[in-house]
Amino acid sequence: MRNSLLLMAVAVAALVIALQTTSRRGAEAPADLILVGVEIYTVEADRPRAEAVAVRGGRIIAVGDEGEISRHKGPATAVVDLGGAFVVPGFIDNHTHFDYAARLLLGINLLDVTDADLLAERVAGARDRLPEGAWILDGDWGAYEEWAMGSSGREEVAEPRERFKPHRDIIDPLTPETPVLLSRWDGSEYLANGVALERAGITHATPDPAGGTIERDPRTGDPTGILTGTAADLVRRVIPAKSFEQRVLEARVALARLAENGVTGIHDITRAHQMEVFQYLRDRGELTVRVYARPTLDHWEDLAALGVGTGYGDEYLKIGGLKGFVDGIMGNSGARFREPYDHQPDNSGIWRTMVLEPPGMAELIRAADSVGLDPHVHAIGDLAVDTLLDWFEMAVERNAPRERRFRMIHAQVVEEDDFERFGELGIIAEVQPYHAIDDMRWMEERIGYERCKGAYAFKSLMEGGALLSFGSDWPGTNAAWYPAKPLLGIYAAVTRQTLDGEPEGGWFPEERLDVETAIAAFTINNAFAAGEEDVKGSIRAGKLADFTILDGDLLEVEPSEIKDVRVLGTVVGGRVVYADPTLTDLVELLDEAAPGR
Fold this sequence. Notes:
Layout: H1 2-27, E1 33-41, E2 49-50, E3 52-56, E4 59-64, H2 66-70, E5 78-89, E6 91-96, H3 98-106, H4 116-129, E7 136-141, H5 168-171, E8 180-184, E9 190-192, H6 194-200, E10 212-216, E11 223-229, H7 231-236, H8 244-260, E12 263-268, H9 272-283, E13 290-293, H10 300-306, E14 317-319, E15 322-325, H11 353-356, H12 361-370, E16 375-379, H13 382-398, E17 407-410, H14 419-425, E18 428-431, H15 433-452, H16 458-463, E19 467-470, E20 476-477, E21 480-481, H17 486-495, H18 515-521, H19 524-529, E22 547-550, E23 567-572, E24 575-579, H20 584-593
Parallel strand pairs: 1-5, 6-12, 7-8, 12-13, 13-14, 15-16, 16-17, 17-18, 18-19
Antiparallel strand pairs: 1-2, 1-3, 3-4, 5-22, 8-9, 9-11, 10-11, 20-21, 22-23, 23-24
């Protein structure tokens, strides 16, 4: 009898639990958004492929086949059939200079300008985009003058190209009320228009300042607009501070570009004025990309004093690791090498201020690490890379054990015996694959074939144990333009060819990667690099609903075709922030998600 009563009690308890479970399931809120008709690459090893995903409250609640996901549908659920599109976790760019890119996009980009017609076209465009009263500034003309954009570095140059020499006469008719001060890429010259010269008080009678020249027309004696050295400072000192309104306008243009390219997150080198803009846009619901902001390493004490550590912030705007600099860049032959440059036998590159001035880079790294802040440090030349590895090792040895996410930024030229040190020390290689297919135009000329074997050596870094983290370095440097377009980065890593397919087989083809590795480096690896692998980087229940929607399956198309795959949509936190006009259901959701609605 007692046994019968016990069995009955167990059965009743089981029934109560079952009813409670059924009740909870029945009460579960339906999804806000369900994507069907898709090929999903989840970047999850246990289930890499799926055909539908459900989202609620900005997070993924289920991933699987359409039958599994259909139970999450409710009366108000938006169900979007994407007609066979390919969906990956939202692309994360590991290295951007957002404020600089925003300024170039709204203002002027002259890196590829080598003639008067294109200069006039770009100036007219900037004049029409910028708000009333704004100056047209910088631009860096002539960066691709010697080696054209898209060159593989193997083309024969029959005759050295004559250097483009602009004149204010080209732009004065276009800018009768807009002041202009443009720069040549190497800073050797500046071009001011008539309005800028007038505001600076520069006339035919103005003497050359010490350390600079005002070029004059030999016929009239009037300034041609070309200024060098300190002469450009005469104009700079009358340029007004940029308004907050202009910064916000620039940011909106840059955010739109990122969304169009499928970027849902950036690890940004963020200065104080840009952080203010990000906060403003976040508070208004206009921040359409997640920002992992990185102050500079020399401010570690300020952050530590405030109790701010790596990862402080929210899901849209967070403080990340601290950016440091060891050497210069390849574009200006400033990267620090053990041996001189081939084309400049007296130059081995430079050490940056953080290395040369007290307390020095080694101590900055050790001190930041001692309070739990992760250093992310730029090193490009082989000596810079080797030296930075030494400094990372010293910090690990001297400080208490902890989970570290140290990063070497760029790691562009690595000596053979240094690859394994990345793995031994647990260093993340924060690299930008598009660099390889743009910089190859002059790499062998500058450091020779043998040293180039260790240049942009992504596969060797991975085999040495480094976690590969991919990004763009958008918008680039004064010597190159690097687009924030992850599809081009994946193409570059997989083919190591220019966008025209040169050289055949790829530049140092032994360093090519497979597509799965390249996708991971733009998604889950970047989430890990930011300590966010539990909430980003793959398509899994519980993670943030960040997706990039493409018109081609990256795992199926030919590697040469990856660059031609189009972004059809970008979703951040379940909100559509970009939609191709052909996807009408997605466009409708984009309109509904617009701020203020």
